[in-house]
Amino acid sequence: MNLATSYSLFSQLKTDIISLIYLGEFNDSMTDQLLSLIQTCLINKDEPHSGNKKLSYLTVECFQNIFRHEDKPELIHDSNNIPGMFMARNIADTFFITTANLVEMNKVEYLKEKIGSINKLSDAALKKLYLEILANEKLSEKGGAGLGMIDMVRKSGQKLDFDFKKINYYHAIFYMQLKLKSKLAIAKKAKNQNIPIENAKTIHQQLIDNNIFILFNGNFTQSAVMTLVNMIEKNITSTTDDIGEKKKIAYIIIELIQNILIHGLIVDDTRQGIFTMGMQDEQYFISTGNIISNENILPLTEQLDLLNNKSKSELTKMYKAALLKEDDNNSKGAGIGLIDIARYSTSDMEYGFKKINDETSYYSITIKI
Amino acid sequence: MPKNISIEETFDTPQIILNKEDGIFEIKGKTLPEDASIFYAPILKWIKDYCANPNKKTEMSMELEYINSSSIKQIVNILIQLEQLHEKNKGVVINWRYKKGDELIETKGKEIQSILDLPINLEAL
Predict the structure, then answer these.
(1) Residue B114: in which H helix or E strand, if any?
(2) Of residues B36, B68, B102, nearest to A244 (C-beta)
(3) What is the interface pTM, i.e. ipTM, of the complex?
(4) pLDDT-derived band of residue A22, with 50, 70 and 90 as boundaries?
(5) By the 8 A CB rule, do B115 and B81 touch?
(6) pTM, rounded to two decimals
(7) How far, CA to CA in Å, does A32 sit from each of A38, A230, A338?
(8) What is the three-class DSSP state of A9?
(9) Do A222 and B33 lie within an 8 Å CB cutoff?
(10) Does A122 touch chain B (CB under 8 A)?
């Protein structure tokens, strides 16, 4: 992924405490992992249990909606091979859950009408409608009978935002966004947050264009590292049963993210980092981005260029020498991490800097394995 | 000789049992604290004190699932102490265990084996 795209995504998600975006195949077995990630990373640990439960419930509803109601084209070709998307963002403790999935063009009007009418109903009318549908037991062929959307509006207390993007004669992408104010935000009487659904469409397209299937952004914490690793492992289980490959990927993810935790600059009280992973030409690529002090640019450049110019056996020698070297107190690992990453990387480590001001720059690095 | 060490596993640090009397020396689980030198400082100190007054034989087991580079450095520091002990009394052996198929941990073991003068057995589980 190039520097421009990396920085663009980083900037678009700058206001987020945490953002989590996943593209691709969706199925039930991922629900647990997703919930775990939401619980560990997205929710403020001071959020009361009831708020916690609400978000989890709505997350699962939105998530399951993607694969329950998507219309997969019978014949897949370039123009309709659009992956679905699940996006969860925490902005000042207001949550935004946005989903995208393909639907047949002939469903568009129906969906517009249905959501439009649900959005117009009062609380009391919504409750009445919900109970009516429940009592009638008339389930659509995919189950749910529209209860899901009614429930989303009721539980979030907000209208559902939605949009469509036609992709060809038969299919459109259906975008749906739910907003949920956390109990914390309500208690704090926090400023109202809004994101136009247009943002989700832009990001969706950027991720598709760059073959990214997972994006994680925000104020990284150590506890996020393992949860992220677990989620990714679960996801790449479908493409490889090779424990060896999974472990290498996990190792690189851990090293890159911890590099952010150690070297990333704190700006406006946050140490924002962005992590993306994707697949191109049958190779995984892993990319991170964060802010650094400009005085780090030269030493980093020198180190990365040096490592890129070494053969694998030279790198192994460097790695072993670094392991045996006497500890100097101010190095947490003495650059061993970067040497090791270079060894596992199947091609040169790609990196770039984008100047932000006289003190700081954005630094992005991409590893292919 | 300081008290024996018995630390429970957490989401990013391993279980550690260091017991001179029973001759149990184990590090097991995940090791990825941000700054491993802080976590392993008391472990390293214990090992140094132990090596000043060791058992005749020392068998240490390492069974790691996830590691970061910071931890590898600390583990090597620990093993260097045991290497020096082995030089004197020839009684040290290290069992480096890993899940079958886990090339990463296996390779880390082989590499440590190649840089230290210490009997290290590689065991696939």
Answers:
(1) helix B103-115
(2) B102
(3) 0.93
(4) very high
(5) no
(6) 0.90
(7) 10, 11, 33
(8) helix
(9) yes
(10) no
B101 CA: distance to closest CA in chain A (Å)? 6
Digit-coded pLDDT (tens) for A308-335: 999 999 999 999 999 998 866 555 555 8
Mean pLDDT, residues A14-42:
85
Q: ∠ CA B32-A232-A242 to the nearest 5 degrees? A: 90
CB atoms inside a 10 Å sphere around CB A210: 18
| A269 — pLDDT class (breaks 50, 70, 90) | confident
The percent of chain A in helix, strand and coil, each rounded to the nearest 5, is 50, 25, 25
Nearest CA in chain A to B99: A243
Give the pLDDT mean for A269-275: 91
Q: Are A350 and A4 in contact (CB under 8 A)?
A: no
Judged by CB atoms closer than 8 Å, whether chains meet at A337 and B103 is answered as no
Query: To probe the interface with B, which of A229, A242, A243 has the most B CB atoms within 10 Å?
Result: A243
B108 interfaces chain A, CB cutoff of 8 Å: no
**Chain A residue closest to B79 (CA)?**
A324
The side-by-side arrangement of strands in the sheet containing A283-293 is A161-166, A171-181, A94-104, A84-91, A18-24, A212-219, A272-280, A283-293, A360-368, A350-355
The phi and psi torsions of A94 (rounded to 5 degrees) equal -110, 135
Residue type, B104: L
In chain A, beta strands by DSSP E: 18-24, 84-91, 94-104, 161-166, 171-181, 212-219, 272-280, 283-293, 350-355, 360-368
Residues A145, A151, A152: CA angle, nearest 5 degrees: 115
Nearest to A323 among B68, B73, B99 (CB): B73
| Predicted confidence band of residue A145 (pLDDT cuts 50, 70, 90) | low
Residue A329 CA to residue A339 CA, distance in Å, equals: 19
Q: Tell which residue, A157, A153, A100, has the closest CA to residue A129.
A: A153
Which residues, in sequence order, are bridge partners of residue A284? A279
Let me know: does A339 contact A331? Beta carbons within 8 Å: no
Q: Report the C-alpha gap between B69 and B61 in whole angstroms.
A: 19
Tokens 């117009």, located at residue: A120
For residue A45, what pLDDT is reported?
Answer: 85
The first and second tokens of residue A36, run together, are 């775990």
Nearest chain A CA: its distance from B74 CA (Å): 9
DSSP 8-state code for residue A228: H
Residues A230-244: tens digit of each pLDDT: 777 776 665 556 778
Across the range A133-155, mean pLDDT stands at 74
Residues of chain B in contact with residue A229, where contact means CB-CB under 8 angstroms, are 66
